[in-house]
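Design job #97: recover the sequence.
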């Protein structure tokens, strides 16, 4: 099996363990995804885990090629009033190796999705996870080299260097943004990093 899929499966399993710690009220907490509660993010992860190239293209046609609309329809398909059922549904799809067509969403995008949305949930509910260094490097590299049209951050990173001080690893050349790798990943995935965790002359221009 491709190592990225192994990491995706590990992240799904870790999130399932964390979700079992939540109380019923936690599932209605708003996350950093505008308009998405914890339950909506979980439903989205279930939907994307069940996606195939054909089902993705069919869903896009139904959504009139509006990616945000396609995501919302997927959440409605997979949402449930019962948190236990959502955890069970995620467990049933945790080992799947399907996704959108790879020419539209390369395999590394599956890992970005699991880490970033996992953090969306954990930050909203006070949970914590330490991610594997190579997984963070893969996810950051993907986001940094992917166009904003496809959910990446490439256009904003010209002349900038991302330095993950906890991994002793850098990407790019230019003015630095420095801090923990997971905070860099969240920043270039459109989320607000934790206050005071990142620094550097390029930080304000990237927020």
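Job complete. Output follows.
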């Amino acid at each position: 099996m491709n190592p990225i899929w192994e990491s995706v499966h590990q992240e799904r399993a870790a999130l399932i363990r964390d979700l079992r710690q939540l109380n019923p009220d936690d599932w209605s907490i708003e996350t950093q995804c505008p308009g998405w509660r914890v339950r909506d993010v979980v439903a989205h992860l279930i939907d994307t885990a069940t996606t195939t190239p054909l089902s993705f293209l069919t869903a896009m046609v139904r959504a009139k090629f509006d990616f945000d609309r396609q995501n919302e329809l997927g959440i409605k398909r997979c949402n449930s009033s019962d948190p236990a059922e959502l955890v069970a549904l995620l467990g049933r799809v945790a080992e799947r190796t399907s996704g959108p067509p790879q020419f539209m969403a390369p395999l590394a995008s599956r890992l970005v999705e699991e880490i970033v949305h996992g953090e969306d949930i954990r930050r909203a509910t006070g949970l914590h996870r330490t991610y594997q260094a190579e997984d963070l490097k893969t996810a950051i590299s993907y986001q940094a080299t992917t166009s904003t049209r496809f959910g990446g951050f490439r256009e904003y990173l010209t002349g900038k260097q991302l330095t993950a001080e906890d991994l002793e690893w850098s990407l790019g050349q230019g003015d630095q943004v420095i801090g923990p790798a997971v905070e860099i990943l969240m920043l270039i995935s459109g989320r607000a990093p934790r206050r005071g965790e990142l620094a550097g002359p390029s930080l304000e221009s990237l927020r």
